[in-house]
Amino acid sequence: MKSDAELVGAxxxxxxxxxxSLVRRYERSVRAVAVQVVGDRHRAADAAQDxxxxxxxxxxxxxxxxxxGMWLMKIxxxxxxxxxxxxxxxxxxxxxMARVIEGPNGELDxxxxxxxxxxxxxxxxxxxxxxxxxxxxxxxxDVAEAAGRxxxxxxxxxxxxxxxxxxILKEPGQ
Amino acid sequence: xxxxxxxxxxxxELAQAIGGDQGFVENVMSRVDKxxxxxxxxxxxRVVALARRLNMKGYxxxxxxxxxxxxxxxxxxxxxxxxxxxxxxxxxxxxxxxxRFLHVVSHDEAGRITDERWIEIGxxxxxxxxxxxxxxxxxxxxxxxxxxxxxxxxxxSMVPMVIEDGETTALYxxxxxxxxxxxREDRQYQWVGDLGGAFENLRQKGKILEENVDYEGRAAHKxxxxxxxxxxxxxxxxxxxxxxxxxxxxxxxxxxxxxxIVVPDGYVVLDQRDGSAAADAPEWLVAExxxxxxxxxxxxxxxxxxxxxxxxxAARLLEQGIGADSWAWFWLxxxxxxxxxxxxxxxxYNALLDVVKxxxxxxxLEYCRYARGLAYTQLGxxxxxxxxFDACLPAMMRTLRIPSAGSMFxxxxxxxxxxxxxxxxxxxxxxxxxxxxRIVTGQDFGFDPNGTEEEKExxxxxxxxxYQDLVGNP
Lengths: 174, 474
Description:
heterodimer, A: mainly alpha, globular, B: alpha+beta, 12-stranded mixed beta sheet
């Protein structure tokens, strides 16, 4: 499995298929970031597409190719805010009506929203390994290779992230 | 199933719910086919283009628009004001849960705006976007000149502005004609942190002090909100807080560009974010950050030395930590007090009171008045001491029935609270308050923290009776 840095290098060298690999690797992570901002899956998908296109356009400006994942998440967040501003909540159908039209998967339920919000509060390295491991469905070894870290470090970061997530979810108001 | 496995399973379920779709990669790649990957040069030119897109005039227009919105909102509140049915704290919680924007304004004694913040609140109740003008201006001025600025709003070269657009924090350095960009996670000027926790605190421990009282010519409910450490006034119509401490609150949606990071003409962009293509930080920025890091370290060690009773070491370290945190002044004053250097203690308490008076004239800082009163007493300055003690008596009396009202006194007394190493119980807060009341008033109504509930109630009632007599017959 190629690391993020290797794939970024390949894209900059003209290999578009390498960018498709990055899209496949980060699709769900980017969607997750966007869902947290816009509140539903459908608008999140729009924001996620925008994020990948913007990342591609600006790839030459990425100083550290090994930081591609977190850089992409920031772009995703910004795109999600743009989508949210284009379609403010106030002018949408009321929530119940929207659910009927969008279907039951339009919005995450309360527990999942809380868990997603908790993931976003993790430190940058922990969030990245959680997203690659669970949202992108990679093995620990593949996460290590993608993130350019060793397997032991990723295992420890995942374990710490699990503990921290449990703590955050126990906080009042969660 | 272990806790770790449970979280793992929940994360897998979350990933399933977020989903993906077969056509996603194809859709992205078809859009990518129509654009070109950038070079470094192009990225630089984008920054320059951004810098030229708007200039500082935009801010002035924005400020004027915001003032107009506030004025209209206030007029509408006056027109619609009514007492309505009985008020419950739950109504405020419900109203705030629907608030998506918060506008916070502080004034000085002359009525000038000293601090203004716009906040966009996310779906999870946390701050996502933020704009603050004149943030901590007095502290920055102090760092640069070693003196408290006589007028924090008067010298714009000292006054920074901060904008967080959701991912990036931009610090506007007018003195350096630069905009410094940080990842929001690395540099955050957080005002709305955990509204969920704050609501729970209001629900469980908040108190309605008075309903439909007069607040600056309008009816309002007066509420004690422990986690905000202050009184707030609630609009009877909207149920939303209109003041908190010395700040005024409103909830209108700001102008769309409020949270846009715009680079003024002629300014340089210093991009400190991960993965940025910008050049390394200039020497002045590196030097400032190193100095700030040292100050923060000295402050933390000094606070710890104070908590462990090593007062000489605390004074030495906290002198070095001035500028890291406003508490450095207070705890330095405490250290000098314990060393018997009462003049120096008063000097540092004054420094804190002066800057707070300038940036938030409504703040009383009772714990600081109490501490300064003690120092005046040691110097035989009884009139000055009495004035300070009178200023902190209401907060002390409130603590007898609402223990959390005394939390700042406890925090001031023990820096370990800041670092989560100590948390006083409500019983301790009441007992400590009684001890302070004895010092301040010279009275003693026999409160025994180990006594029965009836005995403690009798002592508190005696204190309240004494206070009522005092207030009624000053």
